[in-house]
Amino acid sequence: MTSVIARDGVHEVEIKRSRFRCTVARVGDAEAAAAVIARVRKAGPGANHHCTAMRIGDPETGEMTVRSNDDGEPSGTAGVPMLEVLARRDLTDVVAVVSRWFGGTKLGAGGLVRAYSGALAETLDAVGTLRRVRHRELLLAVPHDLAGRLEHDLRNSPYRLLGIDYGADVTLTVAVTEDSREAFGAWLAERSGGAVEALDAGPRDLYLP
């Protein structure tokens, strides 16, 4: 199970008169991450460095985009430590940019590693995280005379009712985890007397506390 940031955010720290402003954003692909980086660069043209790290994709399948950039800082002192913070927290679909305004005092390699990773860690603490949990989205075509009772039962069940659409039938959209699909099938058969079947609409990620 992986996590995502709960919200986008900006946080700034000062270390030996250098300012480190960290921006984090949830993104769905590398193009969106590049747009965030470009926006941060444009908003802070006076910064000496804009160091970046991103982790995007699904760690469970290995389909990941993982990149970092030191942007002129000594190699391995900025982007990679930032990336390690994201990895330790099992975060995905996130881009982080730490912009530095040099204050006149050199920090040394160790100091830079601590500064960049620390600025990002503090920002992540501030914005919070959510668990990204893979579900299956199921569509239930329910006769109108059963819909009210089944909706009530769903709202009082461990399964997640995502939406209701009224048409010739009432379509209930439900999310269940992979390991609860069989139990949900039995639950649905019992509650509907076998009159309602679930159509699998594919995977859906939910973001939970």
UniProtKB/TrEMBL annotation:
Residues 140-194 form the UPF0029 domain. InterPro entries: EFG_III/V (IPR035647), Impact (IPR023582), Impact_N (IPR001498), Impact_N_sf (IPR036956), Ribosomal_Su5_D2-typ_SF (IPR020568), UPF0029_Impact_C (IPR015269), UPF0029_Impact_CS (IPR020569). It comes from the Bacteria. Residues 16-123 form the Impact N-terminal domain. Belongs to the IMPACT family. PANTHER family: IMPACT FAMILY MEMBER YIGZ (PTHR16301:SF20), IMPACT-RELATED (PTHR16301). This is YigZ family protein.
